[in-house]
Amino acid sequence: MNYTKEHIFSILSEIPDPEIPVISIIELGVIRDIELINDSSIALKITPTYSGCPAMKQIEDDVRKKLSEHHFTQITIQTIFSPPWTTDWITAEAKEKLRLYGIAPPEHSTEDKSWLTGKTKSISCPRCKSQNTKLISQFGSTACKALYQCQDCLEPFDYFKCI
Amino acid sequence: MTTQEALFQYTLRLGDTNLILGQRLSEWTGHGPFLEEDLALTNIALDITGTAKSLIEYAASIEGKGKTEDDLAYFRNDRQYFNAQMTEQPNGDYARTIVRQAIMDCFDFYFYTELAKSKDETLAGIAQKSIKEVTYHLRHTSSWVERFGDGTEESHNKAQTALNELWQYTGELFEMNEVDAVLMNEGIAVDLNLVKTKWEKHMTELLEKSTLIKPENVFMQTGSRKGIHTEHLAYILAEMQALPRMFPDAKW
Fold it and tell me: Which of A105, A147, B142, B194 could form a disulfide with A95 if both were Cys (CB 3.0 to 4.6 A apart)?
């Protein structure tokens, strides 16, 4: 069959992020470009969320597997670094999915640099929505997350850092 | 020296500095003073090692001998490594690790900000990526330097001792040789004098705020641009390279 780019995007959106399975790799925004060469050849550009993100290899393997199920035999995957991945690329829908999963989604655009000067917006607890939360550590369970605790319901939670 | 040779040397130097610092820092994994700090150091080590992978992979492609980043990381001896001597210094106590890391984070912050404007698209891309991560690292380690310096007498003394011992390795970070000259002509390499001015200003302010005394008139160690290292590097490599050297065909 003749695939279009839209078809490929929809096929790839069936692939969950290996570490946060409630969102797809398309929603995460790591697939930057798709070039359909012919019925059996395809070239993709992907970008890592973090330089050392251990999920990148897994994502690449999953993409290859998924595309070969759709009869692609020549799959080229190129890792690109520019423009660098940003949490601004996570869709609004995906942010809501993150929240329901218990991860506080990135709260502001990376254009807003106020957090650098300590004027961090308060992060709301993904469970009780309280704004009364406290930063425990800038570094959480994976490279992309920080660790917070809600001061009202006392639940510790992950916050997807804005980068 | 051709641009290609210089670019290979330059990229390898940056890659090695990240690789050895990442390897050193990852020694803390599972040994951090408390859980959150253990996670923080491990996260920082992961970012740095990730940057090392991107850089050394790129170096291998510039070299054009069909090698991979693993070949370059695992099958070179200490004299063939060009990481800054600062990065191979032992972790010591927590204050020492943090002081070393803050010095490097501050350097990286200004260095990658400049490198992001490089005419070499791959280096610029890696730098743009890295700067986002380094911003978090610097913020974290700076806050610890401040807490140690302005904390108890003991924490202050430990941070000051670390600073006094490590300062001799800071001069080398800004050394430039033929590699830099060739690449600066092409708009690829960063002018380290520029980075030095910004780094010094930032460090002076941080140390002042932390009530720590910036060491003056220190004899600066040198050598890593020529592959000369302190005695510590060979031990790091022995540990890091043991498995691939024992089983060169191992795949994982």
Answer: A105
Is the CB of residue B44 less than 8 Å away from at least one CB of chain A?
yes
Looking at the structure, do residues A66 and A100 belong to the same domain, yes or no?
no
Find the closest chain B residue to A80 by CA distance: B125
Q: What is the CATH number of the domain that holds B119?
A: 1.20.1260.10
Question: pLDDT for A63-74, tens place per residue?
Answer: 999 999 998 999
A51, closest residue in chain B (CA to CA): B50
CATH number for the domain harbouring residue A53: 3.30.300.130
How far off is chain A from B124, nearest CA to CA, in Å?
8
Q: Which long-range contacts (CB under 8 A, 24 or more apart) does A12-19 make?
A: A12/A63, A12/A66, A14/A66, A15/A59, A15/A62, A15/A63, A15/A66, A17/A55, A17/A59, A18/A55, A18/A58, A18/A59, A18/A62, A19/A55, A19/A142
Question: Is A73 found in the same domain as A20?
Answer: yes
ipTM greater than cut 0.90: no
Pick from A80, A137, A161: CB nearest B125: A80
Q: Are B163 and B207 in contact (CB under 8 A)?
A: yes
What is the number of CB-based contacts under 8 A between chain A and chain B? 75
Contact of A89 with chain B, judged by CB distance below 8 Å, is answered with: no
A13 with A74, same domain: the answer is: yes
Q: Does B36 touch chain A if contact means CB atoms closer than 8 Å?
A: yes
Into how many domains does chain B fold? 1
Mean pLDDT across chain B: 96
- Give chain A's domain count: 2
Q: B133 and A138 in contact by Cβ < 8 A? A: no
Closest alpha carbon within chain B to A163: B132
Helix (H) or strand (E) holding A157: strand A156-160
With an 8 Å Cβ cutoff, are A143 and B43 in contact?
Answer: yes
Tens digit of each residue's pLDDT (9 = 90 or more) over B17-59 = 999 999 999 999 999 998 889 999 999 999 999 999 999 999 9
B49 touching A (Cβ < 8 Å): yes
Please write the tens of the pLDDT for every residue from B191-243: 999 999 999 999 999 999 999 999 999 999 999 999 999 999 999 999 999 99
| Residues A125, A100 share a domain | yes
User: Order of strands, edge to edge, in the sheet holding A145-150?
Assistant: A103-104, A156-160, A145-150, A133-137
Structural domain containing residue B235: 3-246
Note the pLDDT tens digit of each residue in B159-181.
999 999 999 999 999 999 999 99
Domain that includes residue A10, residue range: 5-79
Decide if A52 and B46 are in contact by the 8 Å CB cutoff.
Answer: yes
